[in-house]
Amino acid sequence: MCAILDIKQLSIEFQTQNQVIQAVKNLSLRLFEGETLAIVGESGCGKSVLCKSILNLLPHQHCRCSGEIQYQGKNLLTLSEKQLTQIRGKEIAMIFQNPASALNPTIPVGKQLVETIRVHQKISPVQAKQLVFALLEQVGLKSECAIQYPYEFSGGMLQRIAIAAALMTNPHLFIADEPTTALDTVTQKQILELIQNVKKQHGCSVLLISHHLGIVSQMADRIAVMYAGKIVEIGTTSEILYHACHPYTWLLLSCLPNVNSSYPISYHNDMISKGDAFAPYNPYALRIDFEKEPPFFQLSDTHYAATWLLHPDAPKVSSPIISIE
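The structure corresponding to this sequence follows.
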């Protein structure tokens, strides 16, 4: 299977007034053609930073990136702004957590979509307007919505408009950064079904960002679990849900409130200089976890986890019984 996106040893640092914060640390990841890969993890683990780095949307004056982001043989980190413009929005499209922030509140949505289409396609305004009407109907909105302003729509409708904007150029890669945040359950289901239909109709690859394992279990072919700027476990959806091996993945799977849970639910996501970043909150931590960062151990052709518990010399630890039904 051919990889449409190949991230190699990516590190991202932010320079603040007092310190350097490493948001992503030596991260490697592949997304294959036609698949849906979900990245899950708690808030602050670096999911959105990773997505924005793919499209070079991070603030250059305070951010430093190293490594490679290979897209169809091109390293996106080394391209000029002019070269990126030919890819951003045309071949790689992204919808954000807050779709309202991606729209100008003073301009009707139809006009904004027409302008975006004409940046990437040499068509007349009339043709662009007809395409906008067709796209709005494709995402479940009436063509009359084109004359309305962003503030006249609900959150779910704005997300549909954002998806329509992403579809305008038939992108090869569709990045969805927590597309159901702040939406009610019914609207969440509708948006997820819409993204699945988009994938089927356009044959694109989908990179789905979420902290909700229930959502990604319905959509993803593979799941990558992220903690403190690193991927700690990756595998097929069934492998992660039913055969997880990393203690942090166990924590995510059992994060629903449970009076019998022995897990210390922690919202810390500290970057430590030595050892495993999750070690201070890991009830199964070994001494080596505090001294040396674990490598990836292979469990199958598709399943890898970065935990010393998988070392041949480690004590045998059984995963907790977790109900995900």
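The mean pLDDT is 89.
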